[in-house]
Amino acid sequence: MRKRRKSRIGRRAPTRQPKIRFTLFCEGRNTEPQYFRALRSHYNNSLISIRIENTGRVPITLARTALDFVVTATRKGKRKNLFEEHDQVWIVVDRDEHERFDEAVKLCETNGISVARSNPCFEVWLILHMVDYDRQDASKRVKRIFHAKLSEHGLSGKPIFEKLMTMIEDAEERADILKWRRGKEGQLHGCPSTTVGELTRAIRNAGIGNNAA
Protein backbone atom coordinates (compact mmCIF):
# COMPACT_ATOMS: atom_id res chain seq x y z
CA MET A 1 0.00 0.00 0.00
CA ARG A 2 1.42 3.33 -1.06
CA LYS A 3 1.96 5.90 1.63
CA ARG A 4 0.06 9.11 1.19
CA ARG A 5 2.20 12.13 0.71
CA LYS A 6 1.84 14.72 3.37
CA SER A 7 0.17 17.86 2.22
CA ARG A 8 2.50 20.77 1.57
CA ILE A 9 -0.27 23.28 2.22
CA GLY A 10 0.82 25.73 4.84
CA ARG A 11 4.48 24.86 4.40
CA ARG A 12 5.28 27.34 1.66
CA ALA A 13 8.29 29.45 2.52
CA PRO A 14 7.47 33.08 3.25
CA THR A 15 7.74 35.31 0.22
CA ARG A 16 10.33 38.02 0.54
CA GLN A 17 8.94 41.44 -0.23
CA PRO A 18 10.72 43.33 -3.02
CA LYS A 19 13.05 46.14 -2.07
CA ILE A 20 11.41 49.54 -2.37
CA ARG A 21 13.71 52.16 -3.79
CA PHE A 22 13.29 55.88 -3.30
CA THR A 23 15.34 58.09 -5.59
CA LEU A 24 15.51 61.67 -4.35
CA PHE A 25 16.70 64.60 -6.44
CA CYS A 26 17.50 67.44 -4.04
CA GLU A 27 17.76 71.11 -4.93
CA GLY A 28 20.08 71.84 -2.01
CA ARG A 29 23.63 70.56 -2.03
CA ASN A 30 24.06 70.20 1.73
CA THR A 31 21.07 70.47 4.07
CA GLU A 32 18.60 68.24 2.26
CA PRO A 33 21.07 65.45 1.39
CA GLN A 34 22.41 65.44 4.95
CA TYR A 35 18.89 65.20 6.35
CA PHE A 36 17.89 62.28 4.12
CA ARG A 37 21.14 60.45 4.77
CA ALA A 38 20.32 60.67 8.48
CA LEU A 39 16.82 59.38 7.72
CA ARG A 40 18.27 56.51 5.69
CA SER A 41 20.47 55.53 8.64
CA HIS A 42 17.63 55.87 11.14
CA TYR A 43 15.24 53.67 9.13
CA ASN A 44 17.85 51.07 8.36
CA ASN A 45 15.60 48.55 6.64
CA SER A 46 17.31 46.19 4.21
CA LEU A 47 14.23 46.26 1.98
CA ILE A 48 14.36 50.03 1.51
CA SER A 49 16.99 51.76 -0.59
CA ILE A 50 17.23 55.56 -0.65
CA ARG A 51 19.33 57.05 -3.41
CA ILE A 52 20.12 60.75 -3.01
CA GLU A 53 21.04 62.92 -5.96
CA ASN A 54 22.17 66.32 -4.58
CA THR A 55 22.24 68.26 -7.81
CA GLY A 56 22.01 71.80 -6.43
CA ARG A 57 19.89 72.94 -9.37
CA VAL A 58 16.82 75.12 -9.84
CA PRO A 59 13.45 73.30 -9.81
CA ILE A 60 12.87 73.16 -13.58
CA THR A 61 16.34 71.71 -14.21
CA LEU A 62 15.89 69.32 -11.30
CA ALA A 63 12.56 68.14 -12.72
CA ARG A 64 14.13 67.49 -16.11
CA THR A 65 17.00 65.58 -14.50
CA ALA A 66 14.55 63.40 -12.60
CA LEU A 67 12.54 62.81 -15.77
CA ASP A 68 15.68 61.79 -17.66
CA PHE A 69 16.41 59.30 -14.89
CA VAL A 70 12.91 57.80 -15.13
CA VAL A 71 13.02 57.56 -18.92
CA THR A 72 16.43 55.88 -18.87
CA ALA A 73 15.54 53.54 -16.01
CA THR A 74 12.32 52.36 -17.61
CA ARG A 75 13.79 51.88 -21.07
CA LYS A 76 12.94 48.49 -22.54
CA GLY A 77 15.13 45.77 -21.10
CA LYS A 78 16.33 47.81 -18.10
CA ARG A 79 13.27 48.07 -15.85
CA LYS A 80 13.93 44.77 -14.10
CA ASN A 81 17.34 45.91 -12.88
CA LEU A 82 17.09 49.67 -12.46
CA PHE A 83 13.51 50.63 -11.77
CA GLU A 84 10.50 48.62 -10.65
CA GLU A 85 6.85 49.66 -10.67
CA HIS A 86 6.72 50.06 -6.88
CA ASP A 87 9.79 52.32 -6.76
CA GLN A 88 9.34 56.05 -6.19
CA VAL A 89 11.14 59.08 -7.61
CA TRP A 90 10.89 62.45 -5.83
CA ILE A 91 12.28 65.93 -6.24
CA VAL A 92 12.86 67.96 -3.08
CA VAL A 93 12.55 71.68 -3.84
CA ASP A 94 12.08 75.11 -2.26
CA ARG A 95 9.51 77.56 -3.58
CA ASP A 96 11.56 80.70 -2.79
CA GLU A 97 11.40 83.06 -5.78
CA HIS A 98 12.18 80.46 -8.43
CA GLU A 99 10.90 81.16 -11.92
CA ARG A 100 9.11 78.33 -13.75
CA PHE A 101 8.44 76.59 -10.43
CA ASP A 102 4.88 75.62 -11.37
CA GLU A 103 6.15 74.32 -14.70
CA ALA A 104 8.63 72.08 -12.87
CA VAL A 105 5.90 70.71 -10.59
CA LYS A 106 3.57 70.01 -13.53
CA LEU A 107 6.35 68.26 -15.46
CA CYS A 108 6.91 65.94 -12.50
CA GLU A 109 3.27 65.26 -11.75
CA THR A 110 2.47 64.36 -15.37
CA ASN A 111 5.34 61.86 -15.43
CA GLY A 112 4.80 60.02 -12.16
CA ILE A 113 7.44 61.93 -10.20
CA SER A 114 6.44 63.07 -6.72
CA VAL A 115 7.24 66.54 -5.38
CA ALA A 116 8.31 67.36 -1.81
CA ARG A 117 7.97 71.13 -1.84
CA SER A 118 8.55 73.69 0.91
CA ASN A 119 7.46 77.31 0.93
CA PRO A 120 9.60 79.28 1.28
CA CYS A 121 12.36 76.75 2.07
CA PHE A 122 13.25 73.32 3.47
CA GLU A 123 13.93 74.78 6.92
CA VAL A 124 10.17 75.13 7.45
CA TRP A 125 10.05 71.34 7.51
CA LEU A 126 12.99 71.20 9.92
CA ILE A 127 11.39 73.68 12.33
CA LEU A 128 8.22 71.57 12.44
CA HIS A 129 10.18 68.76 14.09
CA MET A 130 10.36 70.96 17.19
CA VAL A 131 7.44 73.40 17.18
CA ASP A 132 4.40 74.55 15.25
CA TYR A 133 5.33 77.32 12.84
CA ASP A 134 2.96 79.53 10.89
CA ARG A 135 4.63 82.78 9.88
CA GLN A 136 5.03 84.28 6.43
CA ASP A 137 8.78 84.83 6.65
CA ALA A 138 11.38 84.97 3.89
CA SER A 139 13.92 82.18 3.58
CA LYS A 140 16.74 83.98 5.43
CA ARG A 141 14.58 84.58 8.48
CA VAL A 142 13.21 81.00 8.42
CA LYS A 143 16.77 79.68 8.50
CA ARG A 144 17.66 81.94 11.42
CA ILE A 145 14.59 80.74 13.31
CA PHE A 146 15.55 77.13 12.66
CA HIS A 147 18.98 77.57 14.24
CA ALA A 148 17.44 79.48 17.14
CA LYS A 149 15.01 76.63 17.79
CA LEU A 150 17.85 74.14 17.76
CA SER A 151 19.52 76.08 20.56
CA GLU A 152 16.28 76.39 22.52
CA HIS A 153 15.77 72.63 22.38
CA GLY A 154 19.38 71.79 23.20
CA LEU A 155 19.97 70.32 19.76
CA SER A 156 22.86 72.50 18.65
CA GLY A 157 26.04 70.85 17.44
CA LYS A 158 26.47 67.74 15.38
CA PRO A 159 24.90 65.44 14.45
CA ILE A 160 21.84 67.75 14.25
CA PHE A 161 19.76 65.74 11.81
CA GLU A 162 20.26 62.46 13.63
CA LYS A 163 18.74 64.16 16.68
CA LEU A 164 15.69 65.21 14.69
CA MET A 165 14.85 61.71 13.48
CA THR A 166 12.85 60.86 16.61
CA MET A 167 10.60 63.87 15.93
CA ILE A 168 9.59 63.06 12.36
CA GLU A 169 6.04 61.99 13.15
CA ASP A 170 5.48 65.24 15.07
CA ALA A 171 6.74 67.17 12.04
CA GLU A 172 4.41 65.24 9.74
CA GLU A 173 1.39 66.08 11.90
CA ARG A 174 2.33 69.76 12.07
CA ALA A 175 2.86 69.84 8.30
CA ASP A 176 -0.62 68.35 7.82
CA ILE A 177 -2.05 71.14 9.97
CA LEU A 178 -0.25 73.78 7.90
CA LYS A 179 -1.63 72.24 4.72
CA TRP A 180 -5.14 72.33 6.18
CA ARG A 181 -4.73 75.97 7.14
CA ARG A 182 -3.43 76.96 3.71
CA GLY A 183 -6.27 75.01 2.11
CA LYS A 184 -8.82 76.95 4.15
CA GLU A 185 -7.20 80.12 2.82
CA GLY A 186 -7.41 78.88 -0.77
CA GLN A 187 -3.61 78.60 -1.10
CA LEU A 188 -2.81 74.92 -0.57
CA HIS A 189 0.92 75.43 -0.98
CA GLY A 190 1.08 78.98 0.29
CA CYS A 191 3.65 80.32 2.76
CA PRO A 192 4.46 78.64 5.06
CA SER A 193 3.83 75.07 3.99
CA THR A 194 5.70 71.87 3.19
CA THR A 195 4.91 68.46 1.74
CA VAL A 196 8.19 66.83 2.77
CA GLY A 197 6.18 64.92 5.38
CA GLU A 198 4.48 63.02 2.56
CA LEU A 199 7.89 61.72 1.53
CA THR A 200 9.05 60.78 5.03
CA ARG A 201 5.70 59.10 5.70
CA ALA A 202 6.03 57.08 2.49
CA ILE A 203 9.49 55.91 3.54
CA ARG A 204 8.34 55.04 7.07
CA ASN A 205 5.27 53.17 5.81
CA ALA A 206 7.39 51.22 3.35
CA GLY A 207 9.53 50.06 6.27
CA ILE A 208 6.51 49.16 8.38
CA GLY A 209 4.93 47.18 5.53
CA ASN A 210 8.10 45.21 4.85
CA ASN A 211 8.65 44.42 8.52
CA ALA A 212 5.11 43.10 8.80
CA ALA A 213 5.46 40.83 5.75
Strand order of the largest sheet: 2-1-3-4-5
SSE string, helices as H and strands as E? EHEHHEHEHHHHEH
Rounded to an integer in angstroms, the radius of gyration calculated over CA atoms is 20 Å
- Give me the number of helical elements: 9
Overall structural class, as computed from helix and strand content, comes to alpha/beta
Low-confidence stretches: none
What is the subunit arrangement here?
single chain
Helicity level: 40-55%
Question: How would you describe what is shown here?
Answer:
- Helices cover 46% and strands 14% of the residues.
- The chain has a 5-stranded mixed β-sheet with strand order 2-1-3-4-5, sandwiched between helices.
- The chain is built from 9 helices and 5 strands, in the order βαβααβαβααααβα.
- Helix 2 (59-73) runs parallel beside helix 4 and helix 8 packs across helix 9.
- The longest helix is centred in the C-terminal third of the chain and has 17 residues, at 168-184.
- With 213 residues, it is of the alpha/beta class.
From the structure above, extract its key features.
213 residues, alpha/beta, 5 strands, 9 helices
